[in-house]
């Protein structure tokens, strides 16, 4: 059974492309059309600060994707990414190995994610499903 079939109520949030439509639009308006952040903010109807956040995030994602391709951690939802960074398993091969050795697993009895026998805070079924999907891609 696939991970998405086990929990059909929620769509997993692994990015299919590195940037969201909003991030691509902000990058295009700022870098291609040479609009300033206040001009982009005015056009999109949001604050200048929000445009700056979107732009910084888009640049970081683009750089991570350029360096790591489909193994880029920024393709994962934030909670899953932070979980991997906290346990020092920040690469797809390391996550796959941890899953194969059952160091990282889903505890069906207690319905929780387990890492080295412990249930980490703020990492539940959606984190597990995102990690399963990300680790399974090749």
Task: Tell me what the structure shows.
This protein is mainly alpha-helical. It has 2 domains: 21-70; 76-136, no CATH class. The chain contains 7 helices and 2 strands. A two-stranded antiparallel sheet has the order 1-2. Strand 1 and strand 2 (112-115) form a beta hairpin. Helix 2 (21-32) packs across helix 4. The two termini are 18 Å apart.
- The total of helices stands at 7
User: Looking at the structure, what is the overall shape?
Assistant: elongated
Can you give the helix content as a percent range?
A: 40-55%
Q: Could you list the spans in which at least 5 consecutive residues all have pLDDT below 50? A: 6-12
The total of beta strands comes to 2
* Mean pLDDT over the residues: 87
Q: Span between N and C termini?
A: 18 Å
Q: Trace the largest sheet across and list its strands.
A: 1-2
Over all CA atoms, what is the radius of gyration? Answer: 18 Å
How many discrete structural domains?
Answer: 2
Main sheet overview: 2 strands, antiparallel
SSE arrangement, N to C: HHHHHHEEH
Beta-strand percentage range: 5-15%
Structural class: mainly alpha
């Amino acid at each position: 059974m696939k991970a998405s079939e086990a929990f059909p109520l929620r769509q997993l949030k692994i990015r299919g492309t590195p940037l969201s439509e909003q991030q691509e639009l902000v990058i295009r308006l700022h870098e291609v059309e040479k609009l300033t952040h206040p001009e982009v903010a005015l056009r999109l109807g949001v604050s200048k600060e929000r445009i700056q956040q979107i732009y910084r995030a888009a640049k970081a994602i683009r750089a991570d994707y350029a360096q790591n391709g489909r193994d880029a951690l920024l393709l994962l939802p934030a909670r899953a990414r932070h979980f991997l960074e906290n346990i020092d398993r920040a690469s797809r091969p390391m996550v796959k190995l941890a899953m194969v050795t059952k160091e990282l697993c889903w505890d069906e009895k207690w319905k929780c994610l387990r890492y080295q026998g412990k249930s980490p805070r703020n990492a539940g079924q959606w984190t597990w499903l995102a990690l399963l999907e990300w680790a399974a891609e090749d």
